[in-house]
Give the backbone structure.
Amino acid sequence: MEQILTHPGKKLQTQKVDQPRWQRIILLSLLGYEGAGALMGGILLIAAPGGRYMDMPVEIMHGVFRDFMVPGIILFGLGILNTAAFVAVLRRTRSDWFMAGLALGGLFIWFIVEIVILQELHWLHAMWGIPVLLGWVMAIPLIALRHETVMMRKALLACGILSSLWYLVINIFVPMQYEGYSSVTQTVSELSAIGAPTRVIWVLLATLYPLLFAAFGWGVVKSAAGNRSLRVAGTLIIVYSVMNFYWPPMHLREVIAAGGGTLTDTLHIVWAMITLLFNMLLMGFGAATSGKQFRLFTIVTFVVFIVFGILIGMEAPGIQANLPTPWIGVWERINIGVFQLWVVVFAIVLLRKEKVAGLIKGNET
């Protein structure tokens, strides 16, 4: 594919470009995996609409469908679509970006609707759903590559702002669906805890956050040019997003206090610590690429992280003992909020740089 250098919003340069090999291999593997699974699952459901071959009772659909015939046909169709996308990406056709996006988008909608119908989460959703999200992470740079414009880079960078706004929205909406929940005395993780009435809705809505943040990460990488620190920051954002596709769930605090905690509770804490590390690393590398004011802003953000992290740590034992934690929800949301604010400011800084670069290139042509 050839790109042509001209004014902002149009093609940037004339050269033969192709998706990096490692990205292409991962995307092909995921499309092949999902395609084969959808074809096989569709065939089994069509062959036995009662769910015998899949060991699934029709009742799990809560009356939405009489049997699995229609879902089987849809799933089989998605298998064909993913196979076609696999071939398109393999052959590097002009429509490879469209086919990959269409196939992965179809599966994304399939899993959302399936979870809504089943009204529960199953380990199979992780087995087949997470690869779809990973596929999107690899499809985003392919889509951007086939539309290599200043506007595309700006759109990717704007996803950083959208990701923070979306996280704010779900943190307002989901607690309203949990009777008795307090954003002051309870943590965000308790919204998705095993046994929480908001677990399904939180997981469904929160899935969009890492996808938007990953798109932002690709925008940062594309804006890096020869800036190594900016490229590292973008890469860390992408890795952080992938890690957020699955958070080991905690149990309700009364269950933990009664000795019902499991390995997932321990892993939940580990994930939280890794998340904090990633946050500080990507902010550090991001700050290194910008001016003095943004670096000072980042330092203040670090200080807030440390101060309120200590306050969270002081109350955290109360969760395991099911004792009062009067302000833990506030302390945690302040830490989350300052990070989301940092992302918004970082995105705005990069968008301004893109605008300046675009004006310079426009004057030179």
Remarks:
- The longest helix spans residues 328-364.
- The chain has two domains: 1-13+148-365, 18-147.
